Give the backbone structure.
Amino acid sequence: MSTLTNASPLLEIRNITKSFDGAPLLQDISLAVAPGEIVCLLGPSGSGKTTLLRIIAGLEQADSGEIFFGDQNLRDVPVHQRGLGMMFQDLALFPHKNVIDNIAFGLRMHAARISRDAIHARVQETLELVGLAGFDKRDVNNLSGGEQQRVALARSLAPRPRLLLFDEPLGALDRILREQLIADLRTILKRIAMTALYVTHDQDEAFAIADRIAIIHDGRIAQIGTPAEIYRAPANAFVAQFLGMTNLFSAQTQSNNQIKTALGTFEIETPIGAGASMALIRAENVRIVENGNGIAAQIEECIFRGGNYRLRVVTDRGVRLTADTDHPVAIGTPVGLEIAKVEIIPM
């Protein structure tokens, strides 16, 4: 598990639970976010990510547990006094206001004592930060989707919150625009050392923006760590599958460094004890041998993925797995499979 920096956490979630209609949604969730850190809550729909964000914001109440913002317990603190910024997929821009008035409205709501000149200066500064300098008089209805997202971000940033909450903010955008905004969003947040909690169900989005990722499954944190830590060492079969690693097979220990799977018996790098576990074979570790050596198989599917080809193959024993290759292979082609590496993870 990844640890925080030496700084005390800005946000600390302690043992949060929440049920709906008697069914548990969040179960004993604990998480700490350091100042300036971007943490992603990643998980499938219905896993409780948005509910946890709403509890932090004060829009819903937990059944039990506590949330601390610095040294302050947020239990009885109203939404508007929590010092949090929020940005949701539904941008909720005012269609009858131009860019500057949309941003200034949010600023006035959070900082009523700021002078008109100070508000104008803050808006201009924030527009420049998000790459919209000169857009202040624009009609928000005539902006592109990406520009509207930046206006919404500017509105959230203008009051200078200590923590910014994001709930699927880029979900409505097309892939190319989303990828550009993800990179820009991380750059902006890091430039001003903004602490952020970011909800998404998209692992690529989480990997691109987060310092750490907390994967939520069945209302619990299944794993937390940096993107590299989670990718290199998924905590269990669910995490591996959620990240797109579909080559998972039941494994039985043969010896300390050998395991038996449906594909055969393999040596592993890290010795394990006796018992059942899961064997993970990453697609990039499956080598296609078209002269027939190795495990006998046949190509079932070949899909171009923009840089390589993803193959689905089936062995002569009916075992299916995926493999990556740099060239297409015709469906129905008999091939051999060589497995470069097998990893063991908990079930």
The longest strand covers residues 23-33. The radius of gyration is 24 Å. Confidence is low (pLDDT under 50) at residues 1-5.
